[in-house]
């Protein structure tokens, strides 16, 4: 990155490049350079550095879950006081159906999102709930099945 500092602050060009990549990560460096008003070599160097610093974690396809028969299950979890929230969060993150795990404030410790295939939705969701409840250190779990997703976005506004 051009002017990255100790706080991992990016300059305007880095942010422009990231905005373009979030819209279409398939674009060539030449096309990105045209969008951001820079050279192909500069864009290539910036993207490489953004990857090295872990700001760009990877590239993937964004699927429309409802079009492929996937249901979202949300679990709000309370961890027993003598157990590590981080360790339990990591254990849950290791489940193949887990999409995201957040440590939260309030009466609960974790909020977790899972994806279940609708063809086996009931069985798969029950299986996930059973596996969560078997994790040592979990005090309480409230689960919710998402009926309709109004907005689900992974892009970050820069």
Roughly how many Å is the radius of gyration? 20 Å
Structural class: alpha+beta
The CATH architecture of the largest domain can be named as 2-Layer Sandwich
Report the helical percentage: 25-40%
From the N-terminal CA to the C-terminal CA, the straight-line distance is 16 Å
Poorly predicted runs of 5 or more residues:
none
CATH superfamily of the largest domain: Lrp/AsnC effector binding domain/regulation of amino acid metabolism (RAM) domain
Strand order of the largest sheet: 2-3-1-4
- The fold-level CATH name of the largest domain is Alpha-Beta Plaits
The CATH class of the largest domain turns out to be Alpha Beta
Order of helices and strands: HHHEHEEHE
**DSSP E strands, number:** 4
Instruction: Report mean pLDDT, rounded to a whole number.
Output: 89
What's the number of structural domains? 2
Largest sheet: 4 strands, antiparallel
Question: What gross morphology would you assign?
Answer: elongated
Give the SSE map.
Layout: H1 12-23, H2 29-36, H3 40-52, E1 70-79, H4 85-93, E2 98-103, E3 110-117, H5 121-133, E4 138-145
Antiparallel strand pairs: 1-3, 1-4, 2-3
Helix pairs in contact: 1-2, 2-3
């Amino acid at each position: 990155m051009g002017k990255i500092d100790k706080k991992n602050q990016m300059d305007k060009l880095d942010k422009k490049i990231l905005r373009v990549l979030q819209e279409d990560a398939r674009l060539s460096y030449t096309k990105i350079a045209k969008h951001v008003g820079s050279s192909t070599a500069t864009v290539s160097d910036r993207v490489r550095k953004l990857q090295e610093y872990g700001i760009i974690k990877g590239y993937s396809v964004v699927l429309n879950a409802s079009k492929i028969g996937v249901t979202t299950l949300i679990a709000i979890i309370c961890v027993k006081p003598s157990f590590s929230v981080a360790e339990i969060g990591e254990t849950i993150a290791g489940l193949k159906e887990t999409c995201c795990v957040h440590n939260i404030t309030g009466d609960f410790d974790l909020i977790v999102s899972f994806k279940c295939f609708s063809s086996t939705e009931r069985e798969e969701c029950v299986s996930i709930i059973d596996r969560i409840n078997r994790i040592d250190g979990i005090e309480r779990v409230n689960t919710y099945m998402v009926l309709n997703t109004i907005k689900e976005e992974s892009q970050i506004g820069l």
